[in-house]
Design brief:
Blueprint (H helix, E strand, L loop, with lengths): L6 H10 L4 E7 L2 E8 L1 E3 L4 E2 L6 E2 L5 H13 L10 H4 L12 H5 L36 H4 L16 H15 L3 H13 L44 E2 L1 H12 L6 H7 L4 E3 L4 E3 L4 E3 L5 E7 L2 E8 L4 E7 L6 H10 L13
Antiparallel strand pairs: 1-2, 1-12, 3-4, 5-6, 7-8, 8-9, 9-10, 10-11, 11-12
Helix pairs in contact: 1-10, 2-6, 2-7
Length: about 350
Protein backbone atom coordinates (compact mmCIF):
# COMPACT_ATOMS: atom_id res chain seq x y z
CA UNK A 1 0.00 0.00 0.00
CA UNK A 2 1.08 3.56 -0.54
CA UNK A 3 -0.54 4.37 2.79
CA UNK A 4 -2.06 2.30 5.57
CA UNK A 5 -5.83 2.37 5.57
CA UNK A 6 -6.98 2.51 9.17
CA UNK A 7 -10.17 0.98 10.51
CA UNK A 8 -11.36 4.52 11.20
CA UNK A 9 -10.81 5.54 7.55
CA UNK A 10 -12.53 2.38 6.31
CA UNK A 11 -15.50 3.02 8.59
CA UNK A 12 -15.76 6.55 7.20
CA UNK A 13 -15.76 5.21 3.63
CA UNK A 14 -18.46 2.68 4.53
CA UNK A 15 -20.60 5.42 6.08
CA UNK A 16 -20.10 7.93 3.24
CA UNK A 17 -22.81 6.43 0.99
CA UNK A 18 -24.22 3.87 3.44
CA UNK A 19 -22.34 0.94 1.91
CA UNK A 20 -24.34 -2.26 1.95
CA UNK A 21 -22.67 -5.45 0.83
CA UNK A 22 -19.54 -7.53 1.37
CA UNK A 23 -15.89 -6.40 1.49
CA UNK A 24 -13.05 -8.92 1.60
CA UNK A 25 -9.28 -9.00 1.25
CA UNK A 26 -7.64 -12.37 0.63
CA UNK A 27 -3.86 -12.68 0.65
CA UNK A 28 -2.88 -16.10 -0.68
CA UNK A 29 -4.81 -18.60 1.42
CA UNK A 30 -5.55 -16.14 4.23
CA UNK A 31 -8.49 -13.79 4.53
CA UNK A 32 -7.09 -10.68 6.17
CA UNK A 33 -10.24 -8.57 6.11
CA UNK A 34 -13.95 -9.34 6.00
CA UNK A 35 -16.77 -6.86 6.46
CA UNK A 36 -20.47 -7.55 5.88
CA UNK A 37 -22.57 -4.40 6.03
CA UNK A 38 -26.29 -3.81 5.71
CA UNK A 39 -28.98 -6.03 4.28
CA UNK A 40 -29.38 -8.45 1.40
CA UNK A 41 -33.12 -7.98 1.91
CA UNK A 42 -34.07 -4.81 3.75
CA UNK A 43 -37.78 -5.49 4.13
CA UNK A 44 -37.17 -8.87 5.76
CA UNK A 45 -34.09 -7.76 7.70
CA UNK A 46 -31.80 -10.38 6.09
CA UNK A 47 -28.22 -9.32 6.68
CA UNK A 48 -25.32 -9.92 4.34
CA UNK A 49 -22.98 -12.83 4.98
CA UNK A 50 -19.65 -13.69 3.34
CA UNK A 51 -21.49 -16.11 1.04
CA UNK A 52 -24.22 -13.72 -0.12
CA UNK A 53 -24.61 -13.74 -3.89
CA UNK A 54 -24.61 -10.17 -5.24
CA UNK A 55 -24.94 -8.87 -8.79
CA UNK A 56 -21.60 -7.74 -10.19
CA UNK A 57 -23.10 -5.49 -12.86
CA UNK A 58 -20.61 -5.30 -15.74
CA UNK A 59 -18.14 -7.40 -13.78
CA UNK A 60 -18.92 -10.52 -15.80
CA UNK A 61 -17.55 -8.99 -19.03
CA UNK A 62 -14.31 -10.76 -18.10
CA UNK A 63 -16.22 -14.05 -17.96
CA UNK A 64 -17.70 -13.34 -21.39
CA UNK A 65 -14.24 -12.65 -22.78
CA UNK A 66 -12.93 -15.89 -21.28
CA UNK A 67 -15.76 -17.89 -22.85
CA UNK A 68 -14.88 -16.35 -26.22
CA UNK A 69 -11.19 -17.11 -25.73
CA UNK A 70 -11.99 -20.72 -24.92
CA UNK A 71 -13.63 -20.90 -28.35
CA UNK A 72 -10.51 -19.28 -29.82
CA UNK A 73 -8.29 -21.86 -28.10
CA UNK A 74 -10.19 -24.79 -29.61
CA UNK A 75 -10.26 -23.18 -33.05
CA UNK A 76 -13.97 -22.40 -33.24
CA UNK A 77 -13.28 -18.66 -33.46
CA UNK A 78 -10.35 -16.40 -34.30
CA UNK A 79 -9.67 -12.93 -32.92
CA UNK A 80 -9.51 -11.61 -36.47
CA UNK A 81 -12.78 -13.22 -37.53
CA UNK A 82 -15.33 -10.81 -38.93
CA UNK A 83 -18.58 -10.59 -37.01
CA UNK A 84 -20.79 -9.75 -40.00
CA UNK A 85 -20.88 -13.27 -41.55
CA UNK A 86 -21.89 -14.76 -38.19
CA UNK A 87 -24.68 -12.23 -37.70
CA UNK A 88 -26.10 -12.71 -41.18
CA UNK A 89 -29.03 -10.35 -41.73
CA UNK A 90 -29.23 -9.39 -38.05
CA UNK A 91 -27.94 -6.00 -36.83
CA UNK A 92 -27.14 -4.64 -40.31
CA UNK A 93 -25.75 -1.34 -38.94
CA UNK A 94 -22.70 -3.11 -37.53
CA UNK A 95 -19.76 -2.33 -39.83
CA UNK A 96 -18.49 -5.10 -42.13
CA UNK A 97 -14.94 -4.64 -40.75
CA UNK A 98 -15.80 -5.31 -37.06
CA UNK A 99 -13.86 -8.28 -35.67
CA UNK A 100 -14.08 -10.36 -32.51
CA UNK A 101 -11.02 -8.53 -31.19
CA UNK A 102 -12.65 -5.14 -31.77
CA UNK A 103 -15.62 -6.20 -29.66
CA UNK A 104 -13.42 -7.61 -26.89
CA UNK A 105 -11.36 -4.41 -26.63
CA UNK A 106 -14.26 -1.91 -26.94
CA UNK A 107 -12.79 -0.55 -30.16
CA UNK A 108 -15.53 -1.75 -32.54
CA UNK A 109 -17.26 1.63 -32.79
CA UNK A 110 -20.70 0.03 -32.97
CA UNK A 111 -23.66 1.96 -31.60
CA UNK A 112 -24.45 0.99 -28.02
CA UNK A 113 -27.89 0.15 -26.72
CA UNK A 114 -26.75 1.31 -23.27
CA UNK A 115 -24.47 4.21 -24.15
CA UNK A 116 -22.39 5.23 -21.13
CA UNK A 117 -21.19 8.35 -22.93
CA UNK A 118 -24.68 9.85 -22.59
CA UNK A 119 -26.03 12.08 -19.83
CA UNK A 120 -28.49 9.66 -18.24
CA UNK A 121 -28.71 8.68 -14.60
CA UNK A 122 -27.84 5.17 -13.46
CA UNK A 123 -31.42 4.51 -12.34
CA UNK A 124 -33.10 5.73 -15.54
CA UNK A 125 -35.59 3.46 -17.27
CA UNK A 126 -33.53 2.83 -20.40
CA UNK A 127 -34.93 -0.33 -22.00
CA UNK A 128 -37.32 -0.21 -24.94
CA UNK A 129 -38.44 -3.83 -24.47
CA UNK A 130 -40.33 -5.50 -21.61
CA UNK A 131 -37.57 -6.64 -19.26
CA UNK A 132 -39.15 -10.03 -18.59
CA UNK A 133 -38.47 -10.95 -22.24
CA UNK A 134 -34.71 -10.44 -21.85
CA UNK A 135 -33.81 -13.83 -20.43
CA UNK A 136 -31.97 -15.36 -23.40
CA UNK A 137 -29.38 -13.86 -25.76
CA UNK A 138 -31.41 -13.91 -28.98
CA UNK A 139 -34.13 -11.91 -27.21
CA UNK A 140 -31.74 -8.93 -27.06
CA UNK A 141 -31.65 -8.52 -30.86
CA UNK A 142 -34.50 -5.94 -31.01
CA UNK A 143 -32.81 -3.94 -28.21
CA UNK A 144 -29.45 -3.96 -30.03
CA UNK A 145 -30.85 -2.95 -33.41
CA UNK A 146 -31.04 0.54 -34.90
CA UNK A 147 -27.86 2.14 -33.51
CA UNK A 148 -25.54 3.55 -36.21
CA UNK A 149 -21.81 2.94 -36.18
CA UNK A 150 -20.10 5.71 -34.13
CA UNK A 151 -16.63 5.49 -35.71
CA UNK A 152 -14.60 3.14 -37.93
CA UNK A 153 -13.57 -0.11 -36.22
CA UNK A 154 -10.23 0.15 -34.45
CA UNK A 155 -10.12 3.95 -34.42
CA UNK A 156 -10.39 4.41 -30.65
CA UNK A 157 -11.73 3.02 -27.35
CA UNK A 158 -15.40 3.49 -26.50
CA UNK A 159 -16.84 1.31 -23.76
CA UNK A 160 -19.67 -0.68 -25.34
CA UNK A 161 -22.16 -2.81 -23.44
CA UNK A 162 -23.90 -3.85 -26.64
CA UNK A 163 -20.64 -5.20 -28.03
CA UNK A 164 -20.48 -7.78 -25.26
CA UNK A 165 -24.05 -8.92 -25.91
CA UNK A 166 -23.04 -9.31 -29.57
CA UNK A 167 -20.12 -11.46 -28.37
CA UNK A 168 -22.57 -13.63 -26.44
CA UNK A 169 -24.70 -13.96 -29.57
CA UNK A 170 -21.64 -14.87 -31.65
CA UNK A 171 -20.57 -17.45 -29.07
CA UNK A 172 -23.96 -19.13 -29.22
CA UNK A 173 -24.08 -19.26 -33.00
CA UNK A 174 -20.61 -20.70 -33.53
CA UNK A 175 -20.67 -23.15 -30.61
CA UNK A 176 -24.25 -24.41 -30.74
CA UNK A 177 -24.52 -23.88 -26.97
CA UNK A 178 -26.38 -21.18 -25.08
CA UNK A 179 -24.24 -18.36 -23.73
CA UNK A 180 -25.21 -19.12 -20.14
CA UNK A 181 -24.28 -22.80 -20.56
CA UNK A 182 -20.99 -21.83 -22.18
CA UNK A 183 -19.95 -19.53 -19.33
CA UNK A 184 -20.99 -22.09 -16.73
CA UNK A 185 -19.00 -24.92 -18.34
CA UNK A 186 -15.97 -23.07 -19.69
CA UNK A 187 -15.43 -20.54 -16.90
CA UNK A 188 -17.32 -21.30 -13.69
CA UNK A 189 -16.89 -25.08 -13.68
CA UNK A 190 -13.25 -24.93 -14.74
CA UNK A 191 -12.55 -22.43 -11.95
CA UNK A 192 -14.50 -24.38 -9.30
CA UNK A 193 -16.97 -21.58 -8.63
CA UNK A 194 -19.90 -22.75 -6.51
CA UNK A 195 -22.01 -19.62 -5.99
CA UNK A 196 -21.61 -17.73 -9.26
CA UNK A 197 -24.53 -17.90 -11.71
CA UNK A 198 -26.84 -15.98 -14.02
CA UNK A 199 -29.88 -15.74 -11.75
CA UNK A 200 -33.29 -14.36 -12.68
CA UNK A 201 -34.11 -11.23 -10.70
CA UNK A 202 -37.73 -12.38 -10.37
CA UNK A 203 -36.71 -15.78 -8.97
CA UNK A 204 -33.81 -15.18 -6.61
CA UNK A 205 -32.74 -17.87 -4.12
CA UNK A 206 -32.54 -17.15 -0.39
CA UNK A 207 -28.78 -16.43 -0.47
CA UNK A 208 -28.99 -13.76 -3.23
CA UNK A 209 -29.21 -10.05 -2.49
CA UNK A 210 -31.78 -7.69 -3.92
CA UNK A 211 -30.33 -4.66 -5.71
CA UNK A 212 -31.46 -1.34 -4.21
CA UNK A 213 -31.63 1.97 -6.02
CA UNK A 214 -31.03 4.23 -3.02
CA UNK A 215 -29.26 4.39 0.32
CA UNK A 216 -32.56 3.80 2.13
CA UNK A 217 -35.96 2.37 1.25
CA UNK A 218 -37.05 -0.84 -0.42
CA UNK A 219 -37.12 0.13 -4.14
CA UNK A 220 -35.19 -2.46 -6.12
CA UNK A 221 -33.76 -2.59 -9.64
CA UNK A 222 -36.15 -5.26 -10.92
CA UNK A 223 -37.82 -2.76 -13.31
CA UNK A 224 -34.49 -1.32 -14.52
CA UNK A 225 -32.49 -4.30 -15.80
CA UNK A 226 -33.03 -7.44 -17.90
CA UNK A 227 -34.60 -10.23 -15.89
CA UNK A 228 -31.44 -12.29 -16.49
CA UNK A 229 -27.95 -11.05 -17.14
CA UNK A 230 -26.08 -11.65 -20.37
CA UNK A 231 -22.74 -10.93 -22.04
CA UNK A 232 -22.49 -7.38 -20.77
CA UNK A 233 -23.36 -7.93 -17.12
CA UNK A 234 -25.77 -9.06 -14.45
CA UNK A 235 -24.12 -12.22 -13.12
CA UNK A 236 -24.38 -12.93 -9.38
CA UNK A 237 -21.11 -13.71 -7.59
CA UNK A 238 -19.74 -14.25 -4.10
CA UNK A 239 -16.58 -12.84 -2.56
CA UNK A 240 -15.24 -16.37 -1.99
CA UNK A 241 -15.78 -17.26 -5.64
CA UNK A 242 -13.96 -14.17 -6.85
CA UNK A 243 -10.73 -15.06 -5.05
CA UNK A 244 -11.16 -18.63 -6.30
CA UNK A 245 -11.68 -17.26 -9.81
CA UNK A 246 -8.54 -15.14 -9.85
CA UNK A 247 -6.40 -18.02 -8.58
CA UNK A 248 -7.82 -20.42 -11.16
CA UNK A 249 -7.22 -17.84 -13.89
CA UNK A 250 -3.58 -17.36 -12.95
CA UNK A 251 -3.06 -21.11 -12.53
CA UNK A 252 -4.12 -21.74 -16.13
CA UNK A 253 -7.28 -23.67 -15.25
CA UNK A 254 -9.61 -21.51 -17.39
CA UNK A 255 -7.43 -20.52 -20.34
CA UNK A 256 -3.76 -21.18 -21.09
CA UNK A 257 -1.08 -18.84 -19.72
CA UNK A 258 -0.43 -17.62 -23.27
CA UNK A 259 -4.09 -16.77 -23.78
CA UNK A 260 -4.22 -14.99 -20.44
CA UNK A 261 -1.14 -12.96 -21.35
CA UNK A 262 -2.88 -11.89 -24.56
CA UNK A 263 -6.05 -10.94 -22.68
CA UNK A 264 -4.19 -8.88 -20.09
CA UNK A 265 -1.84 -7.15 -22.50
CA UNK A 266 -2.72 -3.44 -22.33
CA UNK A 267 -4.47 -2.48 -25.56
CA UNK A 268 -5.65 1.02 -24.70
CA UNK A 269 -4.99 3.64 -22.05
CA UNK A 270 -8.20 5.08 -20.60
CA UNK A 271 -7.17 8.23 -18.69
CA UNK A 272 -10.74 9.08 -17.71
CA UNK A 273 -10.90 5.80 -15.74
CA UNK A 274 -7.29 5.97 -14.50
CA UNK A 275 -6.88 2.47 -15.91
CA UNK A 276 -5.91 0.58 -19.04
CA UNK A 277 -7.91 -2.10 -20.85
CA UNK A 278 -7.04 -5.50 -22.26
CA UNK A 279 -9.71 -7.93 -23.42
CA UNK A 280 -12.53 -8.17 -20.88
CA UNK A 281 -10.33 -6.90 -18.04
CA UNK A 282 -9.41 -3.47 -16.74
CA UNK A 283 -5.73 -3.16 -15.88
CA UNK A 284 -3.93 -0.95 -13.38
CA UNK A 285 -2.51 2.12 -15.06
CA UNK A 286 0.85 1.89 -13.30
CA UNK A 287 0.73 -1.60 -11.82
CA UNK A 288 0.07 -5.21 -12.80
CA UNK A 289 -3.31 -5.32 -11.07
CA UNK A 290 -6.21 -7.06 -12.83
CA UNK A 291 -9.65 -5.57 -12.33
CA UNK A 292 -13.28 -6.53 -12.82
CA UNK A 293 -15.74 -3.70 -12.23
CA UNK A 294 -19.46 -3.07 -12.46
CA UNK A 295 -21.83 -0.16 -11.92
CA UNK A 296 -25.54 -0.38 -12.51
CA UNK A 297 -28.89 0.35 -10.96
CA UNK A 298 -28.64 -1.54 -7.67
CA UNK A 299 -25.05 -2.74 -8.17
CA UNK A 300 -21.61 -1.30 -7.40
CA UNK A 301 -18.65 -3.65 -7.59
CA UNK A 302 -14.92 -4.00 -8.03
CA UNK A 303 -12.59 -6.94 -7.59
CA UNK A 304 -8.87 -6.20 -7.91
CA UNK A 305 -6.26 -8.93 -8.02
CA UNK A 306 -2.54 -8.40 -7.45
CA UNK A 307 -0.76 -11.31 -9.15
CA UNK A 308 2.59 -10.92 -7.39
CA UNK A 309 1.12 -11.62 -3.96
CA UNK A 310 -2.04 -13.49 -4.99
CA UNK A 311 -4.08 -10.84 -3.21
CA UNK A 312 -7.73 -10.18 -4.04
CA UNK A 313 -9.54 -7.04 -2.87
CA UNK A 314 -13.29 -7.32 -3.49
CA UNK A 315 -16.13 -4.88 -2.80
CA UNK A 316 -19.60 -6.19 -3.67
CA UNK A 317 -22.35 -3.63 -3.10
CA UNK A 318 -26.08 -4.12 -3.60
CA UNK A 319 -27.04 -0.50 -4.10
CA UNK A 320 -26.10 1.89 -6.88
CA UNK A 321 -23.64 4.20 -5.14
CA UNK A 322 -22.71 2.69 -1.79
CA UNK A 323 -19.58 0.79 -2.74
CA UNK A 324 -17.73 3.60 -4.50
CA UNK A 325 -16.27 5.45 -1.49
CA UNK A 326 -15.02 2.07 -0.21
CA UNK A 327 -13.64 1.11 -3.63
CA UNK A 328 -11.83 4.44 -3.98
CA UNK A 329 -10.40 4.27 -0.46
CA UNK A 330 -9.00 0.82 -1.17
CA UNK A 331 -7.74 1.83 -4.61
CA UNK A 332 -5.75 4.66 -3.03
CA UNK A 333 -4.14 2.08 -0.76
CA UNK A 334 -3.17 -0.36 -3.52
CA UNK A 335 0.09 0.14 -5.35
CA UNK A 336 1.04 -3.09 -7.08
CA UNK A 337 1.24 -5.14 -3.87
CA UNK A 338 -0.57 -5.18 -0.57
CA UNK A 339 2.18 -4.81 2.00
CA UNK A 340 0.36 -3.30 4.97
CA UNK A 341 -2.44 -4.42 7.20
CA UNK A 342 -5.55 -2.60 8.31
CA UNK A 343 -4.61 -0.95 11.60
CA UNK A 344 -7.08 -0.29 14.39
CA UNK A 345 -6.45 3.20 15.72
CA UNK A 346 -9.72 3.38 17.61
Amino acid sequence: MTALLTTEALDAAIAAESFTGVLTIDEGDTRTLERCEGFANRALGVRHTPSTRISAGSGNKGFTALAIMRLVEVGTLGLGDLVRPILGEDLPLIDDAVTIEHLLTHTSGIGDYLDEEGDGEIDDYVFSLPLHLLAETEAFLPALAGFPQKFPPGERFSYCNGGYVVLALVAERVSGRTFHELVQAEVCDRAGLTGTAFLRSDDLPADAALGYLDEAGNRTNVLHLPVRGNGDGGMYVTADDLHRFWNALLDGRIVSPGTLAEMTRPRVDVPSEHKRYGMGFWLGRRSSSLILEGYDAGASFRSTHLPETRTTVTVLGNNSEGAWPVIYALADAIDGTVRGKFLDEG
